[in-house]
């Protein structure tokens, strides 16, 4: 069997990717084994999951249409339908637009760090990985707890319910309902015997899979944004030492061909210190203000263009510093492209998510006005409310962090001592400020920007629609 090498961001996201594959997402790449029969089995599992998800959602929709006779029951069924609409749309959305996700996943796999700043890059990548895994554990634990709580509440609820008599709208009748997690219409009797047991197992599996589908895709979005934020922190962190290094450059600009070759082969360029030995670039970065290794060396390089120049740097050291400047500019361009790719992946899905959540929260607010005590109804409404708010907030808080980090890059450029640097350093700062004039954002199909302002707007819309519902009764 052929092994797929996991590296870069895909390697960092391997736990999340693996869980997406285990829950039936149409993520057929990044498997360790790629045999023909194995691939067919994976496709069969994805089709089976698709059938399970859409069939149960259809049963829930049929219940909303066929078996709701009064406003309260219809509102409760509508909330349930809208709640699971997230899972269905995101599952289908990922299947239809998986190529955009593959493109984003592979965006950083071939990126190399500059040897001067390898330690900073590795540290921020490790920080991003730790935050990704922490988020996965928190939301994953919340998903499991939600399924267990949902199942437990089912057996605490009254097995009978009052509904409006279909033959007489002025009277109510008491009917027995099956003890299942979600009200749904089935073409079989799901109240007793083996059909009830099979329906219960079917709903339990579907409930876990549906919540996992939506949450894992949300975690993937947050992981992308976290990775971009840590890359921006890395770029901000190396600005000051980069300015100090570039201050030693003279006004002579090297041949552009030499500069580009230096950028691609920088990892092979030795740095010669005052003692004539190669410099440890990690030691240079660990003490950002100690750049004594770039002072005139005792042992000069061979005379074929490698001697000490008027600025006290050897030719190779000059190319190293200039390649570091080019590295910063190119890395920031890649961050911008990466964030744009995130928007391409999630744009329409974010729009549908926010629209659906706004309607769901409005109906939940209306249902919350009917809470009369601490009972199953109250816990169910509050559970729906907290879960839905959490889904919206997790997008907005990470989108807001991206905006803040990208905005602070220009501030970091202004705060470094660029005015003491060379002409090349000043030009570099101008390029930085020009690139960072507009904050990096993720939009919902260009209708809104994902941020805490969006969260406030959603809450404001919910309050407005809730007041309309109260007035209409």
UniProtKB/TrEMBL annotation:
Which is a Gene Ontology cellular component entry for this protein?
A: plasma membrane
Q: Which residues cross the membrane?
A: 45-69, 75-96, 135-156, 204-229, 376-397, 447-468
This protein's source sits in the domain of life called: Eukaryota
What GO molecular functions are on record for this protein?
Answer: odorant binding; olfactory receptor activity
Q: Which UniProt keywords apply?
A: Behavior, Cell membrane, Glycoprotein, Membrane, Olfaction, Receptor, Sensory transduction, Transducer, Transmembrane, Transmembrane helix
Q: Major place of localization?
A: membrane
Which GO biological process annotations does it have?
signal transduction
**One Pfam family named in its UniProt record:** 7tm_6
Q: Where is the signal peptide?
A: none
Which cell locations does it reside in? Cell membrane
Q: What membrane topology term does the record carry?
A: Multi-pass membrane protein
Q: Which PANTHER family match?
A: ODORANT RECEPTOR, ODORANT RECEPTOR CORECEPTOR
Protein family: Belongs to the insect chemoreceptor superfamily. Heteromeric odorant receptor channel (TC 1.A.69) family. Orco subfamily.
Q: What's this protein's name?
A: Odorant receptor
**What is the native source organism of this protein?**
Rhodnius prolixus (Triatomid bug)
């Amino acid at each position: 069997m052929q092994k797929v090498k996991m590296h870069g961001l895909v390697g960092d996201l391997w736990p999340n990717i693996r869980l997406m594959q285990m829950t039936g997402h149409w993520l057929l790449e990044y498997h360790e084994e790629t045999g023909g029969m194995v691939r067919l089995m994976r496709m069969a599992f994805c089709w089976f999951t698709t059938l399970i998800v859409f069939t149960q959602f259809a049963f829930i929709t049929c219940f909303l249409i066929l078996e709701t006779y009064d406003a309260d029951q219809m509102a409760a069924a509508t909330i349930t339908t809208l709640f699971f609409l997230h899972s269905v749309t995101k599952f289908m959305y990922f299947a239809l637009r998986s190529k955009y996700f593959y493109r984003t996943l592979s965006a950083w796999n071939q990126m190399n760090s500059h040897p001067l700043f390898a330690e900073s890059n590795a540290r921020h990548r490790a920080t991003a990985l730790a935050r990704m895994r922490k988020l996965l554990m928190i939301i994953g634990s919340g998903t499991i707890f939600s399924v267990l709580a949902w199942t437990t509440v089912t057996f605490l609820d009254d097995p009978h319910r009052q509904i409006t008599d279909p033959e007489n709208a002025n009277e109510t009748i008491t009917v027995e309902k099956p003890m299942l997690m979600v009200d749904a219409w089935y073409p079989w009797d799901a109240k007793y015997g083996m059909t009830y047991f099979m329906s219960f197992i079917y709903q339990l599996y579907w409930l876990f899979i549906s919540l996992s589908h939506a949450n894992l895709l949300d975690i993937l979005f947050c992981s992308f944004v976290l990775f971009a934020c840590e890359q921006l922190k890395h770029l901000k962190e190396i600005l000051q030492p980069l300015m100090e290094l570039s201050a030693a450059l003279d006004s002579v600009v090297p041949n552009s061909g030499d500069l580009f070759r230096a950028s691609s082969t920088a990892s092979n360029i030795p740095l010669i210190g005052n003692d004539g030995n190669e410099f440890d670039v990690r030691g240079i970065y660990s003490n950002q203000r100690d750049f004594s290794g770039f002072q005139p060396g005792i042992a000069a390089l061979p005379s074929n263009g490698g001697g000490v120049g008027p600025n006290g740097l050897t030719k190779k050291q000059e190319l190293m510093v200039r390649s570091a400047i080019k590295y910063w500019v190119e890395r920031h361009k890649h961050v911008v492209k990466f964030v744009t790719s995130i928007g391409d992946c999630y744009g329409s899905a974010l729009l549908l998510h926010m629209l659906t959540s706004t309607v769901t929260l409005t109906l939940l607010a209306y249902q919350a006005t009917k809470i009369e005590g601490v009972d199953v109804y109250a816990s169910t409404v509050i559970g729906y409310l907290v879960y839905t708010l959490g889904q919206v907030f997790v997008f907005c808080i990470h989108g807001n962090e991206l905006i803040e980090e990208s905005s602070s890059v220009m501030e970091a450029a202004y705060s470094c001592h660029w005015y003491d640097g060379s002409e090349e350093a000043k030009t570099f700062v101008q390029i930085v400020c020009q690139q960072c004039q507009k904050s990096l954002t993720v939009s919902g199909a260009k209708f809104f920007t994902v941020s805490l302002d969006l969260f406030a707007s959603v809450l404001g819309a919910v309050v407005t629609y809730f007041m309309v519902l109260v007035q209409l009764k």
